C-alpha cells in the first residue's frame, strides 16, 4: 500500500475519533488496584451497523458466545453482523471456562449496559480479558457503566474532548500490554462521490501474550463514520482482519477470547448513500480499514510478552497462497528463530529448518533468505555476510526476515516478536 | 505395555550389546577440544539387514540423502531398507546446506569407511550433527576410522568389552545433550520358537534442542541380533519410531538431519529361521524394539535444551487417532504450557487453549484435565485443587498432563520438556 495525501494516520486516534462515538475507560473494580482502569465503554449516538470476527478456538469464552448471538453468527467462522449501540470490555477477568453461570453473567452485563445506554440488550456487544475460570462479578459494571456515561456526557458536543477520552478506553483494556494501542485513519470523500466530507476509521486493541491465565488475548474495537450496511461492513472487516490480526503470532496460541468488533455510524455522511462493494468509496474505506488494522496488528506483535524486537517474516515465490501462509507462519512461530533474533543471531539455518517442515512445497536448492536486508542464503547455500554489520542492524526495533522460495508467485507476511528471558519470566512466574 | 520377566531392560546397554556388533567413539578432530569424542563408528561382523527412517524436512542434509540412496528409499517417507555393514556418525558439523560439495563429502566418507571396514561404500550408512553451512572435512575420518577399528580389535572376542566400548559411541554423537542416551532390551526365545536363545535389541541416540545451528538433531542407531529380513525390519522400525521418536517434541522443529538406523545381524540365531510379521517371535521383537525406542525417546525429551522437567501429554477420548495426535502435539508444543510447567503452575487454561486450537473435534463442556494426577478441570470447568499439593508434585522429574476429550475412543501420548530461562540462553546466545 502506498501512501496518499488523502489518507492521514493519527497515532492519537482511537475508538472515539470517528463521528458519532464516545469511548471511555474507568476503574470499575475488576482489578484490586484502584489506579488501574479495567472497563472500557464505547457508545454510539445512534444504533449502528456492526460486524465482528471471533476466535476459532473450541474453548471460547462466554462473552464471545453472547456477542456471536447478538451479531447473528450462523456458526463459528461464518459472518457475524447486525446492529449495535454499545461495546463493553472488561479486563481482569476473562469469563472463560465458566459454563452456564458465565453465559448468564455475560447476558446480564449486556442487559445492564442496555438499560443504562437506552437500547435493547442485543445491541450491546461484550468482551472480557483476564484470568480464566473465575466468575465475572456484575457489581463493577453497575458502578462503572454509569461513571463512564457521566464522563461521556461532559464531552458530548466536543470531538476533541471525545477523542481525548477515547485514550482512556484503550488503556482500560490492557492486560500484560506495556502500552495502549490505538490510532485512526482519515480519508477525503473528494473524488469518491462525497465531496467535502472527511471519513474516519479509528480503533483500539490489546494483545501481548496471547492467552490464559491472564487472557492476554486479542481484543479490538474499531469505529467508523462511513455509511455502510452491516453485511458490507462484515465483508470489509473480515478482509482487513485476514491481512492484519490473523497475521500476528506471539506464541502460536489463538485465545479463547479473541474478538474484533467494528461499528459504523454513517455520521460523516448521514444522508448517504451507503458505501457498497465495487465502488471507489468502498475501496477507499477498505484501504483505510486495512491500514488501521495492520498498524494495530504490528503494535500488538511488537508488544508481545517480553518482546525486544518486532519480527516481520515475508515469504515470496510460493506455489500457492496457502504455502506462502504456512511457510511464513511456521518461521514466525519457531521458538528457535525467535530466540535467535533475541540473541541477535542472523541464523538462517533455523529459518530454513522451519520452512522445510512447514508443508510448503519447494526445492531446497532454490531458496534465498535475507535477514535484516543482508543476503544470508542463496540457492539453499550459505552466503558469507558481514557479521558486524548484522549486529549493527539488530539494533533496529524491527527485524525483517525475507524468503524467496522460487516456487511460484504467491506471497505472505506475518508479524511476531522475539523470545526473551523476560517471556519465560512472565509466563513461568505468573502464579507460582 | 505390561512388564514381563522375559523382557529385561539394561540401562548400560548400547549399540554394541547385540551379538555381532562393535561400536566405538573417538576424537577424530571435527571439534577443537581434544577431550571431546566426535565420531562414532558402528560395525557389524557380517553384512546385515538394515532399515532407517529419515527427516521429512524439505531441507535435508547431505548424509541423509546419501543414506537414503544406500537404503534404496523410493522417495521421502517411503520405506528405506537394504544391506549395511557399518554406520558412521560425526558430531560438530552437520553437512547441511552444503550443496553438491556436501553430497560428495558424504559419499567420500562412505567410501573411506568402506575401504577401512572391507565392504562396498553403499553398505556404509552416514549421519552428521553439528553446525550447518560448513563443509565436512574428510581428514578427521581418515584418522578417526582406523583408530576406531583398532579399538574394536582389542575387544573383538569379548562381549562385555564390546558393550563397554559402545558407551563411548553414545558419548561421541552428543551435541548439546547433557548425558549420553543408550540402553538395551533382551528377551527369551523360549515359547516363540527359539528355545534357549536370548535376543537383544540395543541402541543409542542423541537429541536435545532439535535443530541448527548446532544441529541438535535426532540421531539414533539401533542394533539387534534377531534374524529378520530387511523389509520386515523396516516395518518394525517404522512402527516403533511412530510410537516413540515421532512422539517427542522439544521445540516443534523437525530437523534437517533426523535419522534412525536399525541393523539386524541375526547372530543370536544364525541358523534362523527369520522372524516374520504375524508370528510370536516378530511380536516379541516389536515389543522389545518399542520398549527401547520409547525409553530412548523419553530420555531425549527429558534432556531437551534447558529442560528441568519431562512432560508427558496423554490425550484420551478423541474421535480419531489424528485428532488425538493433533491435540497431544499442540499441547506439547505450546510455549505457554511449557513455561507454566517451568513455573510449577498447574495452569490447565493453557492446556485447554491449546486443545481448542489443535483442530481436534470436541465440545468444551466435555473436557476433563488432570495435571500431575490432580483433577484441575472437569466438564470444561475449573475444579478447586490443593495448590500446595500441586507444588509438591511439581518436584518430581516427570509432569503428567492427562486429557479426556470424551469425544471417542482414540488416544495418543507425546513427550516434551519445559521451557526455561536456560533454553533461551542456550538458543539465544549460541553465536553472538
Molecular structure report:
The structure is a homodimer of 432-residue chains. Chain A is α+β, with helices and mostly antiparallel strands and 432 residues long. Chain A has 2 domains: 7-302, L-amino peptidase D-ALA esterase/amidase (4-Layer Sandwich); 310-428, Ubiquitin-like (UB roll) (Roll). The first copy, chain A, is 33% helix and 26% strand. Chain A contains 11 helices and 15 strands. In chain A, strands 1, 2, 3, 4, 5, 6, 7, 8 and 9 form a 9-stranded mixed β-sheet that branches. The first copy, chain A, has a 6-stranded mixed β-sheet with strand order 13-12-11-14-10-15. In chain A, α1 crosses α2 (99-117), α2 (99-117) packs parallel to α3 (139-154) and α5 (230-243) crosses α6. In chain A, 64% of the residues are buried. At the A-B interface, α8, α9, β13 and α11 of A face α8, α9, β13 and α11 of B.
In short:
The structure is a homodimer of 432-residue chains. With 432 residues, chain A is of the alpha+beta class. Chain A has helices at residues 62-70, 99-117, 139-154, 159-172, 230-243, 280-302, 321-333, 335-342, 348-357, 387-393, 421-428; strands spanning 7-10, 21-26, 39-54, 80-93, 124-131, 181-188, 198-206, 219-224, 259-264, 310-318, 368-371, 374-378, 381-382, 398-404, 410-417.
Name some characteristics of this structure.
homodimer; 432 residues; L-amino peptidase D-ALA esterase/amidase; 2 domains; nine-stranded mixed β-sheet; six-stranded mixed β-sheet; 11 helices; 26% strand; globular
Amino acid at each position: 500500500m502506498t501512501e496518499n495525501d488523502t489518507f492521514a494516520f493519527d497515532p492519537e486516534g482511537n475508538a472515539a475519533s470517528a463521528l458519532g462515538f464516545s469511548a471511555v475507560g474507568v476503574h470499575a473494580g475488576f482489578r484490586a488496584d484502584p489506579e488501574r482502569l479495567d472497563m472500557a465503554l464505547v457508545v454510539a449516538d445512534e444504533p449502528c451497523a456492526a460486524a465482528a470476527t471471533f476466535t476459532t478456538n473450541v474453548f471460547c469464552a462466554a462473552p464471545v458466545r453472547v456477542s456471536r448471538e447478538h451479531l447473528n453468527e450462523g456458526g463459528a467462522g461464518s459472518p457475524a453482523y447486525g446492529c449495535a449501540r454499545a461495546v463493553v470490555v472488561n479486563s481482569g477477568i476473562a469469563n472463560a471456562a465458566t459454563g452456564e453461570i458465565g453465559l448468564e453473567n455475560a447476558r446480564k452485563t449486556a442487559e445492564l449496559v442496555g438499560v443504562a445506554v437506552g437500547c435493547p440488550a442485543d445491541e450491546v456487544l461484550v468482551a472480557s480479558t483476564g484470568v480464566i475460570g473465575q466468575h465475572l462479578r456484575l457489581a463493577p459494571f453497575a458502578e462503572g457503566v454509569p461513571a463512564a456515561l457521566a464522563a461521556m456526557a461532559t464531552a458530548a458536543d466536543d470531538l476533541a474532548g471525545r477523542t481525548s477520552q477515547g485514550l482512556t478506553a484503550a488503556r482500560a483494556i490492557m492486560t500484560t500490554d506495556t502500552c495502549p494501542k490505538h490510532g485512526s485513519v482519515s480519508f477525503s470523500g473528494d473524488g469518491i462521490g462525497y465531496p467535502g466530507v472527511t471519513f474516519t476509521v479509528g480503533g483500539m486493541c490489546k494483545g501481548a501474550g496471547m492467552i490464559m491465565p491472564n487472557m492476554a488475548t486479542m481484543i479490538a474495537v474499531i469505529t467508523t463514520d462511513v455509511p455502510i450496511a452491516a453485511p458490507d461492513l462484515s465483508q470489509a472487516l473480515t478482509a482487513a482482519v485476514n491481512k492484519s490480526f490473523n497475521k500476528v503470532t506471539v506464541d502460536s496460541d489463538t485465545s479463547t477470547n479473541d474478538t474484533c468488533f467494528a461499528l459504523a455510524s454513517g455520521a460523516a455522511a448521514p444522508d448517504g448513500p451507503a458505501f457498497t462493494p465495487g465502488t471507489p468509496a468502498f475501496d477507499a474505506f477498505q484501504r483505510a480499514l486495512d491500514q488501521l488494522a495492520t498498524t494495530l496488528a504490528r503494535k500488538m506483535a511488537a508488544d508481545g510478552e517480553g518482546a525486544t524486537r518486532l519480527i516481520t517474516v515475508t515469504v515470496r515465490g510460493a506455489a500457492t497462497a496457502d504455502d506462502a501462509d504456512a511457510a511464513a507462519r511456521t518461521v514466525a512461530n519457531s521458538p528457535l528463530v525467535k530466540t535467535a533474533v533475541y540473541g541477535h543471531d542472523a541464523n538462517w539455518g533455523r529459518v530454513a529448518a522451519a520452512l522445510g517442515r512447514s508443508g510448503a512445497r519447494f526445492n531446497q536448492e532454490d531458496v534465498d533468505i535475507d535477514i535484516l536486508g543482508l543476503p544470508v542464503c542463496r540457492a539453499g547455500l550459505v552466503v558469507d555476510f558481514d557479521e558486524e554489520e548484522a549486529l549493527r542492524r539488530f539494533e533496529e526495533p524491527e527485524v525483517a526476515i525475507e524468503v524467496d522460495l522460487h516456487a511460484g508467485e504467491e506471497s505472505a507476511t506475518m508479524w511476531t516478536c522475539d523470545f526473551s528471558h523476560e517471556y519465560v519470566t512472565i509466563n513461568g512466574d505468573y502464579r507460582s
